[in-house]
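Example record

One chain of 259 residues, shown exactly as stored in the release files.
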Amino acid sequence: MRKPPWYLAFEPRPSARLHLYALPCAGGGPSAYRSWTRHLPPWVELRAVTLPGRPGRHREPAHTDCDTAARALAAELAGQSVPYVVFGHSMGAMLGYRMVRELESGGGRRPELLAVAAWPVRGAVVQPDPRADDERFAAALRALGGLPDEIAHDPGALARTLPVARADFTLCASYTYRAEPPLSVPVAAFCGTRDPVAPPESMAEWREHTADFRGLRVFDGDHFFVRDRVAEMTAILEMRAPGGADQAERAVQPRGATL
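Predicted structure tokens for this chain:
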């Protein structure tokens, strides 16, 4: 039986010199990154990661343990031949971090940059509670901004969405911070000024968890600032270059991106 694809390239670029793997937030899928491709140079191929339980991999149970998910992702990337960068938003940032830890310990090819958005390295209070009933879970997810109106008001779409979101928030709750040596992989961090889950001061702590911190960029926005800042998120590529950390890192700015 053919193995389902684990990423989606909306615009395949066979001659790309760099692959950008993008990991979704809890309840999200590869479609969150569909618009990114047109903002990237032609030598970069965007590969939006499709986690189990999503369309295309709906026959596979969604992961509920972060270490299991990280090991599975690391196994997919271990044989990567083209240089690559990893970007993750919220849950995706956490999975990207644990995945890179797996690659470092297992000897697989590591990314040129780990870009983390909206997830503190020490973890976050998981809301909504995945143990809540559907009504309370959906209401809390909507309050966070993670449940669009078109899904919330469509019983069929809601029935398909909630099980995956519940599994994802269970996965987030499984994360336990570990005091480990700094990563050898460069790290860049991104956050929103009004994010209660990952405020700028907590995102700044990523500095202590890599030997090469490429800076923190702060955007005017909430936990989902990434949705409105697609063009500016190409700063990921700028922060990939050695020596860019001094220019990339900024204090919190109340308006716009710190570009």
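Notes: The domain at 7-129+172-248 is CATH 3.40.50.1820 (Rossmann fold).
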